[in-house]
Amino acid sequence: MKIRSLLLGSAAIAGLSTVGYAADLGVVTSLDVCDELGLSGLTISSDDNCLVITGNVNFEYDVGNYRGATSKHLYGTFANGNGGNGGNVYSVVDDIGQTDSNHGDVDAWLKFVGTSNSDFGPASATISLISENNTGTKDWSVGIDEAWVGIGDTTMLMAGYKSSIFNKGDDVPLNYLGLFNSESVNTGVLWSAALGKGAKTGGDVIQVVSNLGNGISVGGGLEGLGQLNALTGVGVISYAGDGVTAHVSGAVDTQSNWKIHAGFTGAWDPIKIVGAVAADSTGYYDALGSVAATFDMFTLAASGEAATDGYGVGGSASATVTDGVTINLGGRYWHHYTGGGTSDGSTAYDLWQVEAGLSAAVTETVTLTGAVGYTDSGRTGFGSTSPAPLYNGDPAAFYGKAGVAWAPGGGFTAGSNITVSSLGGYEWVFTAAKSIK
User: Fold this and answer.
1) What is the overall mean pLDDT for the chain?
2) Mean pLDDT lowest for which of 83-97, 135-149, 222-236, 400-414?
3) What number of other Cβ atoms are within 10 A of residue 263's Cβ?
């Protein structure tokens, strides 16, 4: 189905329902039902149903000279064996998916949640439509991102097509630059099975979650029900309260593939701590720990990570010199073991990066940022790999970044950023987004 036809049809139906046939369908302008259910935002209510509509449109355009020959890539890269990026070369700036130097991307999603009361608590139906990575084609395809029903309050039963209840949070490092391996898996810790080598989660599901009180919740379910010759059992226990959030998640399928993820975040002024670990049935593990301390205008942070194929550390110092102005100094380091099973064969290497950054809120809606840094890697030569790696060696590079972010309100944001390096690489990115909520 084309998104244009879908949205036009949805608009026509909404118009008929709320205007032309309001009397016949019993639609009222009051939000009493939504108020009774504790629902707010963009809503449409009838006598016994509340429809909540949310969405987002995000546009990004970038142009530059940062792919291809070594002299043109932006700056330092590394390769890891974590399934979060499949062992591909990972760039400090860009993910591996983009290979051109003139690229536009539009992502959009629209979510409808209809809720009414029942004898067992609120009963809901959720439909979420999504269209991603559109690059200028005039007709876009739209997909179903979620389609499920649920019922209950403190205990809720859910069934349909949706995301997993497997909790992967509480694992964001606290230092300014983060950590190399952590960033390669979209920040955090992950397992080698992320690309489909192990227990599948999400998809067609039957799930039950329950709030036991005192900040403790538990959940369990059958997920990946559409798999051939396999299904996955998922369990999770979480806690939130008194400045602490924590969880343990586990999944195992009928083929004996399993994965776990556990995380902890605690904040007790002036200290904040994060710790997390992930592992799976292949023997892969990934762990990190991070601590930050804030004293008046200064924040000091240190982080460390360890995985089957290497280890890394990072640290930073931040100072809020005036209201809205922050200076950040940070560094990070990664050591890859020999024979780590990554795209660069058995070569051991080191990668490090240092950066100084400034953030200044010049008005209530405009924030300026800038940074200068240096990165270097001992990773030279890849041997024979398939597909061939992007670069044959990583020379040292100085780089600079500058950006402006604008948030005038109404759910609208926009920004512009440019990065240049001593290798001759550059990249300019423009973004604009609007949320519906």
Assistant:
1) 81
2) 83-97
3) 24
Give CA–CA dist 341/44, Å, rounded. Answer: 54
Element holding 244 (H helix, E strand): strand 244-253
d(CA 242, CA 216): 12
**Residue range 252-259: average pLDDT?**
91
Residue 390, phi-psi category: left (phi > 0), alpha (psi -120 to 50), beta (remainder): alpha
Distance CA 315, CA 328 (A): 11
Q: Which position has the token pair 């205007």?
A: 19
- What secondary structure, in 3-state letters, does 87-120 show? CCEEECCCCCCCCCCEEEEEEEEEEEEEEECCCC
What is the structure's pLDDT at 22? 39
CA-based max dimension of the chain:
73
Nearest to 233 by CA among 260, 199, 193: 199
Phi, psi of 382 (to 5 degrees): -115, -15
pLDDT score of 371: 96
Are the beta carbons of 278 and 259 closer than 8 angstroms?
Answer: yes
pLDDT tens readout for residues 123-157 = 999 999 999 877 766 667 889 999 999 999 999 99
> What is the average per-residue pLDDT within 221-228?
88
CA angle, residues 377, 383, 385, in degrees to nearest 5: 105
Lookup: tokens for 389: 């790696």
Q: Is 30 helix (H, G, I), strand (E, B) or coil?
A: coil
Burial of 262 (0-12, 13-18, 19+ CB in 10 A): buried
**Cβ–Cβ under 8 Å, residues 256 and 199:** no
pLDDT, tens digit (0-9, with 9 covering 90-100), for 267-281 = 999 999 999 999 999
Residue with more model confidence, 336 or 39: 39
Cα separation, 57 vs 158, whole angstroms: 27
Q: Where are the beta strands (DSSP E) in 308-396?
A: 310-322, 325-336, 349-361, 366-377
Pairing of strands 203-213, 298-307: unpaired
User: If pLDDT is split at 50, 70 and 90, which confidence band does 62 have?
Assistant: confident
Quote the CA–CA distance of 212 and 21 in Å, as a whole number: 44
377/125 Cα distance (integer angstroms): 51
Rounded Cα–Cα distance for residues 295 and 318 (Å): 10
Give the integer Cα–Cα distance in Å for 390 and 372: 25
Residues with Cβ within 8 Å of residue 275, at least 6 apart in sequence: 170, 263, 264, 288, 289, 290
